[in-house]
Amino acid sequence: MSKLLRKAVRWEIALWVSLYRLTFRRPMPMEPGARSFGYIRPIAPVLGVFIVVSAIDIVAVDLALNHFLPTWGWLRAVAIVLGVWGLLWMIGLTANFLTHRHSAGPSGLHVRHSHDLDLKLPWETIERVRAQSRYLMEGDTVQRDKTVVSISISSLTAIDVVFRAPVTLDLPKGREEGVTELRFHTDTPDELVAFARTFLPDPVRA
């Protein structure tokens, strides 16, 4: 199985698992005393539009096939199945972002981006956490500029995590060494920073 096919299969499985978690209210497990923080707000309108369009397409295609090819019942059935799958896929993609949230707790900061990125940052490696809105130039979701790694949502980041010493991060495209700062997005940066600072061993105010 090729690397691309394996990735596609992992994505498909992850979306259905996330849809199950969202439907039956089974959030990702967190340690006692931890809080989760979402980051979907910048892309929520786009995801919502795709979901609505996918739902409309099911009806539109069915009506068109019924009008122009009324005797091809099998084709209508196939189109409906594919349309429903596409709709559920889009809902699953949304669920993927909603269920894989950032979290902060006694053991550290947990930074996620859907199911594809999962970073656990112990507090003892972190010097400070600060709220800082930034806009990145168009590019990959995960970008590196010298010793800074940014994980953006719609090219936005809202949190800067400054490390006490350079760290190695396991990212989707491989390990990045010598990272001194991590930037990522959350919908509630001030709340995350305030909560994170309660766990820092030696908080440094920005």
Q: Topology, pairings included?
A:
Layout: H1 3-23, E1 35-37, H2 44-68, H3 73-99, E2 102-105, E3 108-113, E4 117-122, E5 126-135, E6 142-145, E7 148-151, E8 156-171, E9 174-184, H4 189-197
Parallel strand pairs: 7-9
Antiparallel strand pairs: 1-2, 2-3, 3-4, 5-8, 6-7, 8-9
Helix pairs in contact: 1-3, 2-3
Question: Could you walk me through the main structural features you see in this protein, from its secondary elements to its overall organization?
Answer:
- This protein has 206 residues and is an alpha+beta fold.
- The protein has a domain at 103-197.
- 40% of the residues lie in helices and 31% in strands.
- It has four helices and nine strands.
- It has helices at 3-23, 44-68, 73-99, 189-197; strands at residues 35-37, 102-105, 108-113, 117-122, 126-135, 142-145, 148-151, 156-171, 174-184.
- The strands form two sheets. It has a five-stranded mixed beta sheet with strand order 5-8-9-7-6, covered by helices on one side. A four-stranded antiparallel beta sheet has the order 1-2-3-4, with helices on one face.
- A hairpin with a 3-residue loop joins strand 3 and strand 4 (117-122).
- Helix 1 (3-23) packs across helix 3 (73-99) and helix 2 runs antiparallel to helix 3 (73-99).
- The model has no long low-confidence stretch (mean pLDDT 93).
- It comes from Catenuloplanes nepalensis.
- This is PH domain-containing protein.
- The chain crosses the membrane at residues 43-65, 77-98.
